[in-house]
Amino acid sequence: MIEHKVVILGAMGAGKSTLVRAVAGGTVIDTDVINTDTSSAKLSTTVAMDYADVNLPNGDRLRLYGTPGQERFSFIWPVLLQGARGVVILADASSPDVAQEMERYLLALREHAAKVPAVIGISKFDLVPDVDLDACVLQAQKTAGRPLPLVPFDARSEDAVMMLMDVLMGEVEAAALVEDHV
Ligand SMILES: Nc1nc2c(ncn2[C@@H]2O[C@H](COP(=O)(O)OP(=O)(O)OP(=O)(O)O)[C@@H](O)[C@H]2O)c(=O)[nH]1
Ligand SMILES: [Mg+2]
Protein backbone atom coordinates (compact mmCIF):
# COMPACT_ATOMS: atom_id res chain seq x y z
CA MET A 1 0.00 0.00 0.00
CA ILE A 2 1.23 3.48 -0.87
CA GLU A 3 0.61 6.38 1.51
CA HIS A 4 0.56 9.97 0.29
CA LYS A 5 0.85 12.96 2.58
CA VAL A 6 -1.46 15.73 1.33
CA VAL A 7 -1.43 19.22 2.85
CA ILE A 8 -4.34 21.67 2.57
CA LEU A 9 -3.49 25.38 2.65
CA GLY A 10 -5.91 28.31 2.48
CA ALA A 11 -7.42 31.30 4.21
CA MET A 12 -9.49 31.32 7.37
CA GLY A 13 -12.92 29.98 6.53
CA ALA A 14 -11.95 28.58 3.12
CA GLY A 15 -13.17 25.15 4.22
CA LYS A 16 -9.97 23.24 5.08
CA SER A 17 -11.45 21.59 8.18
CA THR A 18 -14.73 20.99 6.32
CA LEU A 19 -12.90 19.23 3.45
CA VAL A 20 -10.92 16.99 5.82
CA ARG A 21 -14.06 16.05 7.77
CA ALA A 22 -16.04 15.37 4.56
CA VAL A 23 -13.77 12.48 3.55
CA ALA A 24 -12.72 11.30 7.00
CA GLY A 25 -15.49 8.75 7.44
CA GLY A 26 -15.68 9.44 11.15
CA THR A 27 -12.01 9.24 12.10
CA VAL A 28 -10.83 12.82 12.26
CA ILE A 29 -8.59 14.78 14.57
CA ASP A 30 -9.04 18.52 14.72
CA THR A 31 -7.72 21.31 16.88
CA ASP A 32 -10.52 23.83 16.46
CA VAL A 33 -11.09 26.30 19.28
CA ILE A 34 -13.43 29.25 19.80
CA ASN A 35 -12.31 31.98 17.42
CA THR A 36 -10.92 35.15 19.03
CA ASP A 37 -9.65 36.68 15.75
CA THR A 38 -11.89 39.71 15.26
CA SER A 39 -11.10 39.91 11.53
CA SER A 40 -13.49 36.99 11.05
CA ALA A 41 -16.99 36.25 12.35
CA LYS A 42 -16.24 32.51 12.48
CA LEU A 43 -17.25 30.70 15.68
CA SER A 44 -14.32 28.28 15.66
CA THR A 45 -10.92 28.13 13.98
CA THR A 46 -8.09 25.64 13.62
CA VAL A 47 -4.97 26.31 15.75
CA ALA A 48 -2.65 23.41 14.88
CA MET A 49 -4.03 21.14 12.16
CA ASP A 50 -6.80 18.86 11.00
CA TYR A 51 -5.93 15.27 10.27
CA ALA A 52 -7.67 12.34 8.65
CA ASP A 53 -6.78 9.08 6.89
CA VAL A 54 -8.58 8.42 3.62
CA ASN A 55 -8.64 5.14 1.69
CA LEU A 56 -8.63 5.60 -2.10
CA PRO A 57 -10.50 3.22 -4.46
CA ASN A 58 -7.16 1.96 -5.83
CA GLY A 59 -5.99 0.84 -2.37
CA ASP A 60 -3.65 3.76 -1.74
CA ARG A 61 -4.11 5.83 1.37
CA LEU A 62 -4.08 9.60 1.84
CA ARG A 63 -2.86 11.22 5.03
CA LEU A 64 -4.66 14.59 4.89
CA TYR A 65 -3.38 17.54 6.90
CA GLY A 66 -5.42 20.74 7.07
CA THR A 67 -3.41 23.75 8.18
CA PRO A 68 -4.63 26.67 10.31
CA GLY A 69 -5.52 29.56 8.00
CA GLN A 70 -4.64 32.45 10.29
CA GLU A 71 -1.45 34.31 9.33
CA ARG A 72 -0.17 34.12 12.94
CA PHE A 73 0.11 30.35 12.49
CA SER A 74 2.03 30.62 9.19
CA PHE A 75 5.13 29.15 10.91
CA ILE A 76 3.30 25.79 10.90
CA TRP A 77 2.79 25.72 7.11
CA PRO A 78 6.39 24.79 6.15
CA VAL A 79 6.51 22.25 9.00
CA LEU A 80 3.42 20.49 7.67
CA LEU A 81 4.64 20.81 4.04
CA GLN A 82 7.74 18.72 4.82
CA GLY A 83 7.48 15.44 2.96
CA ALA A 84 4.20 16.36 1.28
CA ARG A 85 3.36 14.37 -1.89
CA GLY A 86 0.61 16.78 -2.85
CA VAL A 87 -0.80 20.16 -1.89
CA VAL A 88 -4.32 21.59 -2.15
CA ILE A 89 -4.67 25.36 -2.04
CA LEU A 90 -8.20 26.28 -1.07
CA ALA A 91 -9.89 29.58 -1.81
CA ASP A 92 -13.41 30.61 -0.83
CA ALA A 93 -15.58 31.52 -3.84
CA SER A 94 -17.70 33.76 -1.61
CA SER A 95 -14.81 35.94 -0.44
CA PRO A 96 -14.66 39.50 -1.87
CA ASP A 97 -11.44 38.89 -3.85
CA VAL A 98 -10.90 35.17 -4.20
CA ALA A 99 -7.81 35.43 -6.43
CA GLN A 100 -6.10 37.84 -4.05
CA GLU A 101 -7.00 35.66 -1.06
CA MET A 102 -4.88 32.80 -2.47
CA GLU A 103 -1.72 34.84 -2.82
CA ARG A 104 0.03 34.17 0.49
CA TYR A 105 -0.66 30.43 0.24
CA LEU A 106 0.64 30.31 -3.34
CA LEU A 107 3.78 32.09 -2.12
CA ALA A 108 4.17 29.51 0.66
CA LEU A 109 3.84 26.76 -1.96
CA ARG A 110 6.46 28.41 -4.14
CA GLU A 111 8.85 28.89 -1.22
CA HIS A 112 8.46 25.57 0.61
CA ALA A 113 7.11 23.04 -1.92
CA ALA A 114 8.04 24.38 -5.36
CA LYS A 115 8.22 20.92 -6.96
CA VAL A 116 5.34 19.26 -5.14
CA PRO A 117 2.24 18.53 -7.29
CA ALA A 118 -0.58 20.90 -6.37
CA VAL A 119 -4.14 21.84 -7.28
CA ILE A 120 -6.35 24.83 -6.52
CA GLY A 121 -9.74 24.07 -4.96
CA ILE A 122 -12.36 26.81 -5.18
CA SER A 123 -14.70 26.02 -2.29
CA LYS A 124 -18.29 27.27 -1.76
CA PHE A 125 -18.89 26.97 -5.50
CA ASP A 126 -22.45 25.96 -4.50
CA LEU A 127 -22.90 29.47 -3.05
CA VAL A 128 -21.15 31.47 -5.81
CA PRO A 129 -21.26 29.54 -9.11
CA ASP A 130 -20.35 32.67 -11.11
CA VAL A 131 -17.03 33.25 -9.29
CA ASP A 132 -14.26 34.56 -11.57
CA LEU A 133 -12.33 31.33 -12.19
CA ASP A 134 -10.13 32.91 -14.90
CA ALA A 135 -8.77 35.39 -12.35
CA CYS A 136 -7.91 32.47 -10.05
CA VAL A 137 -6.10 30.57 -12.83
CA LEU A 138 -4.06 33.67 -13.70
CA GLN A 139 -3.21 34.43 -10.07
CA ALA A 140 -2.06 30.82 -9.53
CA GLN A 141 0.19 30.85 -12.60
CA LYS A 142 1.63 34.26 -11.76
CA THR A 143 2.27 33.69 -8.05
CA ALA A 144 3.16 29.98 -7.93
CA GLY A 145 5.27 30.34 -11.07
CA ARG A 146 3.70 27.25 -12.67
CA PRO A 147 0.27 26.33 -14.04
CA LEU A 148 -2.00 24.58 -11.54
CA PRO A 149 -5.26 22.74 -12.24
CA LEU A 150 -8.30 24.39 -10.71
CA VAL A 151 -11.37 22.58 -9.36
CA PRO A 152 -14.47 24.47 -8.20
CA PHE A 153 -16.34 22.36 -5.62
CA ASP A 154 -18.38 22.06 -2.42
CA ALA A 155 -16.07 21.17 0.49
CA ARG A 156 -18.96 19.61 2.45
CA SER A 157 -19.48 16.94 -0.22
CA GLU A 158 -17.50 13.71 0.09
CA ASP A 159 -17.93 13.01 -3.64
CA ALA A 160 -16.72 16.48 -4.60
CA VAL A 161 -13.68 16.23 -2.32
CA MET A 162 -12.82 12.79 -3.72
CA MET A 163 -12.96 14.27 -7.23
CA LEU A 164 -10.54 17.01 -6.18
CA MET A 165 -8.23 14.34 -4.70
CA ASP A 166 -8.46 12.41 -7.97
CA VAL A 167 -7.22 15.47 -9.90
CA LEU A 168 -4.39 15.85 -7.37
CA MET A 169 -3.41 12.17 -7.67
CA GLY A 170 -3.35 12.63 -11.45
CA GLU A 171 -0.80 15.40 -10.94
CA VAL A 172 1.21 13.17 -8.59
CA GLU A 173 1.29 10.38 -11.19
CA ALA A 174 2.24 12.79 -13.98
CA ALA A 175 5.10 14.19 -11.86
CA ALA A 176 6.36 10.66 -11.15
CA LEU A 177 6.38 9.87 -14.90
CA VAL A 178 8.38 13.00 -15.65
CA GLU A 179 10.84 12.14 -12.86
CA ASP A 180 11.37 8.67 -14.32
CA HIS A 181 12.40 10.18 -17.64
CA VAL A 182 15.00 12.74 -16.52
N1 LIG B 1 -21.92 26.09 1.44
C1 LIG B 1 -20.65 25.77 1.70
N2 LIG B 1 -20.15 25.99 2.94
C2 LIG B 1 -18.85 25.67 3.17
C3 LIG B 1 -18.02 25.12 2.17
N3 LIG B 1 -16.78 24.94 2.69
C4 LIG B 1 -16.83 25.35 3.96
N4 LIG B 1 -18.08 25.80 4.27
C5 LIG B 1 -18.50 26.38 5.56
O1 LIG B 1 -17.62 27.45 5.85
C6 LIG B 1 -17.33 27.53 7.23
C7 LIG B 1 -15.82 27.56 7.48
O2 LIG B 1 -15.25 26.31 7.16
P1 LIG B 1 -13.95 25.71 7.92
O3 LIG B 1 -13.79 24.34 7.36
O4 LIG B 1 -14.05 25.86 9.39
O5 LIG B 1 -12.79 26.66 7.40
P2 LIG B 1 -11.21 26.51 7.66
O6 LIG B 1 -10.57 26.70 6.33
O7 LIG B 1 -10.91 25.24 8.38
O8 LIG B 1 -10.89 27.78 8.58
P3 LIG B 1 -9.71 28.01 9.68
O9 LIG B 1 -9.51 26.74 10.43
O10 LIG B 1 -10.27 29.10 10.55
O11 LIG B 1 -8.50 28.47 8.93
C8 LIG B 1 -18.05 26.35 7.88
O12 LIG B 1 -19.26 26.84 8.44
C9 LIG B 1 -18.34 25.42 6.72
O13 LIG B 1 -19.51 24.66 6.91
C10 LIG B 1 -18.59 24.89 0.85
O14 LIG B 1 -17.94 24.43 -0.11
N5 LIG B 1 -19.91 25.24 0.69
MG1 LIG C 1 -9.95 24.86 10.11
UniProtKB/TrEMBL annotation:
Residues annotated as transmembrane: none
Alphabetized InterPro entries for the sequence: Gliding_Motility_GTPase, Gpn, P-loop_NTPase, Small_GTP-bd
Entry keyword set: GTP-binding, Hydrolase, Nucleotide-binding
Gene Ontology molecular-function annotations: GTP binding; hydrolase activity
Family: Belongs to the GPN-loop GTPase family.
UniProt protein name: ATP synthase
Organism classification: Bacteria, Pseudomonadati, Pseudomonadota, Gammaproteobacteria, Lysobacterales
